[in-house]
Write a structure and sequence with these properties.
With about 400 residues, the protein is α+β, with helices and mostly antiparallel strands. It has nine helices and 17 strands. The protein has helices spanning about 75-95, 120-135, 145-150, 210-220, 220-245, 245-265, 275-290, 315-325, 380-385; strands at about 5-10, 15, 20-25, 30, 35-40, 45-55, 60-65, 65-70, 105-110, 165-170, 180-185, 195-200, 295-300, 305-310, 330, 365-370, 375-380. The strands form four sheets. Strands 8-7-9-6-1-17 form a six-stranded mixed sheet. Strands 13-14-12-16-15 form a five-stranded mixed sheet. The chain has a four-stranded antiparallel sheet with strand order 2-5-10-11. Helix 2 crosses helix 3 and helix 5 (about 220-245) runs antiparallel to helix 6 (about 245-265). Bound molecules: ligand DP6. Pfam families: MDD_C, MVD-like_N.
């Protein structure tokens, strides 16, 4: 019997012009366009296997080893409905095609990074789900078309359908058909740009992005200024900075946009705080490092973790500074920054270490070094699949 199965991986993306606010909460249509950098999935990815079979009695989903209910998740239901509708159309036009749209499916998905680390797992997760469905159903859609479906899983997921530098055009139409991801430049465009992810410890459970942004839309007058008067021009500037590989301009826009996103959170009523004392110290550290010229950019999403973008040549120095303030972290040295057991670099001579206190061991739990990466990948299910012969997680 033919097995209908596909296995794919999809990357994480970190926005440099942030998405924050929806004008339609069920279709997930944003109040502003946004732009992100896709990170290398050799370091961070979601992986998904989906099998369709006449033997399955219902649709089932396992996420990081735990079975989850499908019907109670409207966003998941939307992604399945959209892709099955497209497959049904194809099957109606071509009777030679196997009837996959009416079969039940088993979905098994896992991240190679802890969800608890607060990294953007919904972006890579939904991008991977939709991309794997498109492979299973052999949908004749390009990545922008697929991003329209992934967007309905999680807004930021639409940008993970491409590698490199990706814009999400907010669009204007009420049906969302023009609210999609577009490639600005691919992952080969600016190979010198790298990222350090600082996983900050935080006991508190923060407000989810979904709930947080709706409260901002409802209550923040500053958000109205941001979406009308700031983001349209900033998108143009950011695209130009990326095309010209102008790091100081890219970095200033990235830091200003992160700052403004957290300012609209503070302007929300009651206010939302995502950064903590450690996050704010990272801002001070990067600001001091940049005092004679911009050499690094910080950005923070809906949590205390920092992502620092910088040219490759500055990474050893930035890592040395972070190691000074945040002892006792695990370093994922995936790009061999400390080659052959080399020790951590010295602090830059004119760096004023008094700008922040040294934090307790483990305040930053983990630092991960990565770079710009490609879009979703198709893997051979036989070798890499997550489902066993019975269609259950291996
Ligand atoms: C701060 O995409 O997680 O990371 O669409 O409700 O699923 P939903 O929200 P989500 O929000 C991401 C917000 C952000 C900024 C960004 O990635 O652009």
């Amino acid at each position: 019997m033919t097995v209908f199965e596909a296995t794919c991986t999809a990357p994480v993306n970190i926005a440099v012009v942030k998405y924050w606010g929806k004008r339609d909460t069920s279709l997930i249509l944003p109040t502003n366009s946004s732009l992100s950098v896709t990170l290398n999935q050799d370091q961070l990815h979601s992986k998904t296997t989906i099998r369709a079979s006449a033997d399955f009695t219902s649709d089932r989903l396992w996420l990081n080893g735990i079975e989850e209910s499908i019907p109670s998740n409207n966003r998941l239901v939307a992604c399945l409905r959209e892709t099955r509708a497209l497959r049904t159309e194809m099957e109606a036009k071509d009777s030679a095609l196997p009837k996959l749209a009416q079969l039940n499916i088993h979905i098994c998905s896992e991240n190679n990074f802890p969800t608890a680390a607060g990294l953007a797992s919904s972006a890579s997760g939904y991008a991977c789900l939709v991309y794997t469905l498109s492979q299973l159903f052999q949908l004749p859609l390009d990545h922008s078309d697929l991003s329209i479906v992934a967007r309905q899983g999680s807004g930021s997921a639409c940008r993970s359908l491409f590698g490199g530098f990706v814009a999400w055009d907010m669009g204007e139409k009420a049906d969302g058909s023009d609210s999609k991801a577009v490639l600005i430049e691919d992952e080969k465009h600016w190979p010198d740009l790298q990222a350090l992810i600082c996983v900050v410890s935080d006991a508190k459970k923060g407000t989810s992005s979904t709930a947080g942004m709706q409260l901002t839309v409802k209550t923040s007058p500053l958000l109205q200024h941001r979406i009308k008067d700031v983001v349209p021009k900033r998108m143009e500037d950011m695209i130009a900075a990326i095309k010209e590989k102008d790091f100081p301009r890219f970095a200033e826009l990235t830091m200003r946009d992160s700052n403004q996103f957290h300012a609209v959170c503070l302007d929300t009523y009651p206010p939302i705080f995502y950064m903590n004392d450690i996050s704010r110290s990272i801002i001070r550290i990067i600001t001091e490092y940049n005092k004679d010229g911009v050499k690094a950019a910080y950005t923070f999403d809906a949590g205390p973790n920092a992502v620092i973008y910088a040219p490759k040549e500055n990474m050893a120095e930035i890592y040395a500074i972070l190691s000074h303030y945040f002892p006792g972290h695990v370093f994922d040295d995936s790009l061999s920054l400390l080659k052959d057991g080399a020790s951590v670099a010295a602090l830059p001579e004119n760096f004023d270490t008094r700008i922040s206190t040294v934090f307790a061991e483990g305040s930053v739990k983990q630092i991960l070094h990565t770079e710009v990466g490609d879009g979703p990948r198709v893997l051979a299910s036989q070798e890499h699949g997550l489902l066993n012969a019975e269609g259950l997680p291996k």
